[in-house]
Amino acid sequence: MIFDSYANVVASHQMEFKQYYPRSSWHEHDADQIMESCDACIEKACAELEEQGWTKESVKVIGITNQRETTVLWSRKTGKPVSHAIVWDDTRVMGLVTKYENHARERGVPYEGKVHKGEDALKALRKLTGLPLSTYFSALKIRWMIDAWADPDEEKVASKWANVKKAYDADDLCFGTVESWIVYRLTGGAQGGVHVSDVTNASRTLLLNLRSLKWDPVLLEFFDLKENILPRLVSSSEVYGKIKYGALKGVEIAGLAGDQQAALVGNKCLRQGEAKCTYGTGAFLLFCTGEEIVESNAGLLSTVAYQNGPNSKPVYCLEGSIGVAGSGIHWLRDSMHLVPTAPHVNILAAEVADTGGVYFVTAMGGLFAPYWDSSATGMIIGISTATKPAHVVRAMLEANAFMTRAVAESMKVDSGVDLPQMKVDGGMTNGDMVMQVVADLAGCEIVRPEMRESTALGSALLAGSAVRLFGWDIARPETLHEVNTAGSAIFKPQTTKEYRDKKWAGWQRAVERSRGWVREDDE
Ligand SMILES: Nc1ncnc2c1ncn2[C@@H]1O[C@H](COP(=O)(O)OP(=O)(O)O)[C@@H](O)[C@H]1O
Ligand SMILES: O=P(O)(O)OC[C@H](O)CO
Fold first, then answer.
1. Is residue 281 in contact with ligand 2, taking CB distance under 6 Å?
2. Percent of the chain at pLDDT above 90?
3. What range(s) does the Carbohydrate kinase FGGY N-terminal domain occupy (predicted)?
């Protein structure tokens, strides 16, 4: 996406790339294909720019934003991926989560001069990283990738991962989340590419100390990982290097942020108390807590919102990560064939006034925030002979609203702040019905900007701010007042509190039923 000084989109190009699902609950990417799609998007967006009478030299600076946690491993020598990347919502490391929880409880975790054991060890890990041990974050994915070659249960796939171990033993392995991989490749790859990761992405690995913003030796020892695989840590807004090839050769890359943090910046939620929710594949509600780290007692993550330059203090946020949002709609479309296209869910759901008592707990990869239960599975309950596809589709949309309410209630517990209004963006917010259902059941006003590419815009603002393009300065939000001000749509709750609370009670009962379904002896 190429933006002008008002954050109007001047030119853009987007492509899908292949998703690999080699087994149930496994999800992989080919990092080379990610790069090919980036390269093609750069060329095509620049061509569109030129068609509109601009030169490609008008592009002054580049920001990159990315799907977080997805774990890419490549060879320092060749610059090539040594395996497929494992995607954030892949839950193959579920067994490792239990193993490392026990490991922490038994061996203990050093924190503030004392070794904590038992449940305190898990709390210590959480204090260090802001995160729970979960299938979601990168560290256990890296561990799995290094060890997969030797796992007898993985015989059929082991050969695919053998190069990871070889490269690791030969000190040739580089780890990066997706922004790290893209920067590395754009700046030259094996020919001098920079191996960096910004602190927003690094804060999702379980390897970063949330306070010092450094890779933490305690965590590296805990996961038994060598530091030489890790990227150099950088802020979210500074010049990292120049693009070495293609239409934008020579342009500086100066902004890096994980997609959810970038969307927070793109929505200009830069100050304590401001919040947004992005409904894409998953849904992510982020609440800016300023320079203070708020430790959650209610199942939220404490994470880095952005760091505005290498010498700036980091800004933190509380995050409620919801694992399934748009991916649920894709499931209705591709696996259940209930709708021909994603937007069609709005039409089908509008055919019925309610779900006819159906609840859909969208725990297809376990439950994320605020429940954090990997033993929960997807569940549709309340079915009767009167149940139609439209009820199930509507119940899926309602699940987004209930999950949003669950996260918003946790935010209130942690921060003391109610969320009467929430800014939203992401592909799912294109659906008016989806948004109205969220407003009706979560009970808050939804504000949807006309320009909904806040994720891309956030990384552009971080990059522009680093070189003071158009006078933008993230530290001075008033310099962004002309950015993305075109009209917003507002969705107000059209339900009574009594109705919302009744539905909420039903949701809570449904969630309880879905929990604990997977047992250790299950396949
Ligand atoms: N009109 C719509 N109504 C409901 N959902 C939609 C609509 N358009 C797209 N989506 C959903 O939005 C998701 C894509 O959102 P996007 O922000 O592009 O996701 P991501 O950044 O995670 O790839 C898809 O999963 C799709 O199901
Ligand atoms: O919705 P996705 O798949 O683009 O990714 C969202 C997040 O980065 C995962 O944490």
1. yes
2. 77
3. 2-266
Q: pLDDT value at position 34?
A: 97
- Cβ atoms of 182 and 72 closer than 8 Å: no
Contact 272, 289 (CB under 8 A): yes
Would you say 92 and 25 are in contact if contact means Cβ atoms under 8 Å apart? yes
Which residue in 298, 332, 517, 502 sits closest to 428, CA to CA?
332
Alpha carbon distance 456, 65 (integer Å): 7
Q: Is the CB of 260 under 6 A from ligand 2?
A: yes
| d(CA 161, ligand 1 centre) in Å | 32
State whether residue 89 is helix, strand or coil.
coil
Please give the pLDDT value at position 273.
83
62-108 confidence digits (pLDDT tens): 999 999 999 999 999 999 999 999 999 898 998 899 999 999 999 99
For residue 430, what are the contacts with CB-CB under 8 A and spacing of at least 6? 343, 452
Give the pLDDT of residue 155.
59
- Do the domain assignments include residue 123? yes
Does ligand 2 have an atom closer than 6 angstroms to the CB of 88? yes
**Ligand 1 center from residue 427 Cα (angstroms):** 3
Q: Is 462 in contact with 65 (CB distance < 8 Å)?
A: no
State the residue range of the domain holding 123.
94-133
Residue 451 lies in a domain: no
> Atom 10 in ligand 1: which residue has the minimum CA distance?
428
Residues β-bridged to residue 302? 318
| 117 is a domain residue | yes
* CA–CA dist 294, 210 (Å, integer): 11
Q: Which 3 state secondary structure label does DSSP give 347?
A: helix
If you write DSSP's letter for every residue of 433-473 in order, what string do you get?
HHHHHHHHHH-SEEEEESS--HHHHHHHHHHHHHTTGGG--
Nearest to 467 by CA among 314, 298, 238, 240: 238
Q: Could you give the number of structural domains in the chain?
A: 1
- pLDDT of 8: 87
Looking at residue 374, its amino acid is S
Give the start-end residues of each E strand in 330-397: 359-361, 379-381
> What is the whole-number distance in angstroms between the Cα of residue 470 and the centre of ligand 1?
31
* pLDDT range class, residue 200, cuts 50, 70, 90: very high
Other CB atoms within 10 A of residue 445 CB: 14
What is the number of the ligand 2 atom nearest to the C-alpha of 260? Answer: 8
Q: Is residue 71 part of a domain?
A: no
In which band, very low, low, confident or very high, does the pLDDT at 412 lie, cut at 50, 70 and 90?
confident
pLDDT digits (tens, 9 = 90+) for 140-171: 999 999 998 877 666 566 678 889 999 999 99
Contacts of 47 by beta carbon, 8 Å cutoff, 6+ apart: 247
Gyration radius (Cα) of the chain, Å: 22
Yes or no: say if 276 and 319 are a contact pair by the CB < 8 Å rule: no
Instruction: Summarize pLDDT for 359-382 with one digit per residue, the tens.
Output: 999 998 889 889 988 889 999 999
Check if 69 has its Cβ closer than 6 Å to any atom of ligand 2.
Answer: yes
Helix (H) or strand (E) holding 11: strand 9-11
Distance separating alpha carbons of residues 139 and 227, to the nearest angstrom: 12
